[in-house]
Write the structure tokens for this entry.
Amino acid sequence: MATAMDKAKSLVGHMLRKVHPSKDQLASAQAPGLITIKMTSSTFEPGFAMPRETTQEGESISPQISWTGVPPTAKDLALICEDPDAPHPTPIVHWIVYGIPPKTTSLESGPPMSAENAVGAKPGKNYQGKTGYMGPMPPLGHGVHHYHFQLFALDLPLRFTETPTREQIVKSMEKHVIGMGELVGTYERKAED
């Protein structure tokens, strides 16, 4: 049974449905035309709902992500997951992993802080300013949100003296992306009747 608070949140979410940043603000918009990497997941089908355990309503377990087609000249891989459907001026960053060795072909599912499970991989800061995977938690009633898992193949390794933000990662990747892939999962929160 939905509480009065849930109903109010759902109403506000519904009113904000058309408020969201442009998809042109996604990290992948910085490297158009370079989609060469094929991405898949054993956790969810491309374009379909992500399971509850990958969300903040569940355990925020990072999904398993696999890829093929990394250019042989790649020196580094970086993964950024963003939600461009949030009622926010910029896409919400859910996950950053950089320094992924170019021979790596997947990140396995795991608890939020174990997301950097490829040897040598490092975390960036998510929307909350923390490291590790932050599962979906769109506003009640706001509709379906799309989570863009974007993998970038780079011609040089990324190096930072402290944990980087999304803006620092994207700036460092400028003119160094030689391949890219994208996998989209969805999630929607609904108030209980």
